[in-house]
Amino acid sequence: MLGASLDIAAYIDRFKAELDKLDQAQIKKWADLVYEAYENGKFVYIFGNGGSGCNASHMAEDFGKSSLREKDLGDESLRRLKVLSLTDNAGWIMAVGNDIGYDQIFLQQVMNYGQEGDVVLAISGSGNSDNVLKAVDWANRHGLKTLGLTGYGGGKLRDLAHHSFHVPLDDMGMVESIHLAIFHWVLNDVFARINDEGRYAK
Fold it and tell me: Which part of the chain is the SIS domain (predicted)?
């Protein structure tokens, strides 16, 4: 826990330093995958455990509500970004976890929902969460596009997913913070493309 030994200024400096290490091509690919799903009418599924699960919920909410201008949300004619957090169906998660096994909670949902060409955003700080890996493996074998969001050394997920957004840092809190911070750029980029704004203005 970096904040246990670093004061506020040093912690912020370290956060900035870690941001500078990121592979910007990975960030751009993340945005491309989501925008392509929007263009092709495909679903985006997001999931993870603990803080990563909360990030999945946050990302799905923002992608769902904030990919269109607020004034356009009542326009039934507009195409929508189809996005779902698989961390939010508590009843299904508890039933699968209790009756089959916790390692199945995302796999069973992806098997129900997932179709070829859909996108999976799988979040695991360690890269070794078994329930995440099982769902990504199934998605890979059934024609879905997969992106792993990882920290530490990337674990198995970094190599298993088709694409990677990796934060090479051994601190879960800062890894999760960076995942969410960079997500907001991805969201803004997708919004700008959908709505022809900013650098995508026509």
Answer: 34-197
Q: CA-CA distance, 152 to 168, in Å (whole number)?
A: 5
Q: Is 0.85 surpassed by the pTM of this model?
A: yes
Share of the chain above pLDDT 70, in %: 100
Pick the CATH number of 24-70+78-197 from 2.40.50.140, 3.30.870.10, 3.40.50.10490, 3.40.50.410: 3.40.50.10490
Q: List the chain domain ranges.
A: 24-70+78-197
CA distances from 44 to 1, 122, 129, 154 (A): 32, 10, 20, 22
Q: What span, in angstroms and rounded, lies between the C-alpha atoms of 202 and 193?
A: 10
Q: Is 162 helix (H, G, I), strand (E, B) or coil?
A: coil
- Residue 3 confidence class, pLDDT cut points 50, 70, 90: low
124 vs 164: CA distance, rounded Å:
11
Q: In the structure encoding, which two tokens stand for residue 162, read together?
A: 């088709």
Which residue type is seen at 199?
R
